């Protein structure tokens, strides 16, 4: 049985897919990997590139073709088809660092825990400069097995998470399809299947900072921000119906609270319009009704004023907030 199944979300990634796949060839653990290239109905040469790797390395690479269903649908397909002991996600414009991957696979062979959290790096694809390194570690000893209930609250991210495949499959984990920003939903549902956790010491995942027009740029947020609204609603409903353990609720409170806060910021940063104002009011009411614990913790001056004035003065305050925070470059790239 393979040690690690890697599900690669691949939609129109002909320009980056080789950069994603070639680092695996530089590793010494190719035989331990089950790499699924999940082609989400691409209209470019993604399929042809994936087929080349499948033909050259049939024991490692698999092309899974499917109709377009969004990022979540590739995760769902990957979980269903996975054959490795552990499961990890990868986007087709990112990559894993091969030397760290070699050591990671050796560590996973001992099946150290249900969840394994590893650091990840965000880099600028134009300059190659490392922007941030996130370890998602709340202060635990490295390479030591813990019960999740015994560690401080923490917020894992998709890029940092590996989990035993059987837990995802037996737990029937599925994420929302035809929707952006479902990586948080995947992480939260995955954590709900696990009891134990350990923290690896080296960064595996290299995350490419989004270009203008992609989902994590200002134009991407403006186009898809209501999809993050949907993911928040789905996650809150799942929390209420399916999460009973306090230690998992702590993860939700740490990660989902941050997502709820970020959604407010995005709705201030996008262009001012009547539609966006109405959606901001709708979101505020939804969060107040479904998650008052989160609602009452989210404060910043402009939002507090709008809540008191029933959102009168939205245009002025939203424009002011965007200018003051300056989170995006002039061409719409996220700066931090």
Strand content: 15-25%
| pLDDT averaged residue by residue | 95
Q: Count the DSSP helices.
A: 12
Fraction of residues in helices?
A: 40-55%
Overall number of structural domains: 2
Provide the CATH superfamily of the largest domain: Spore Coat Polysaccharide Biosynthesis Protein SpsA, Chain A
Count the beta strands: 12
CATH architecture of the largest domain: Alpha-Beta Complex
CATH topology of the largest domain, by name, is Spore Coat Polysaccharide Biosynthesis Protein SpsA, Chain A
Main pleated sheet: 8 strands, mixed
H-E string: EHEHEHEEHEEEEEHHEEHHHHHH
CATH domain class name of the largest domain: Alpha Beta
Sheet with most strands: strand arrangement = 3-2-1-4-10-6-11-9
How far the N terminus sits from the C terminus, by CA atoms, comes to 40 Å
Supply the helix-strand structural class.
alpha/beta
Low-pLDDT sequence parts? none
Shape: globular
Radius of gyration: 20 Å
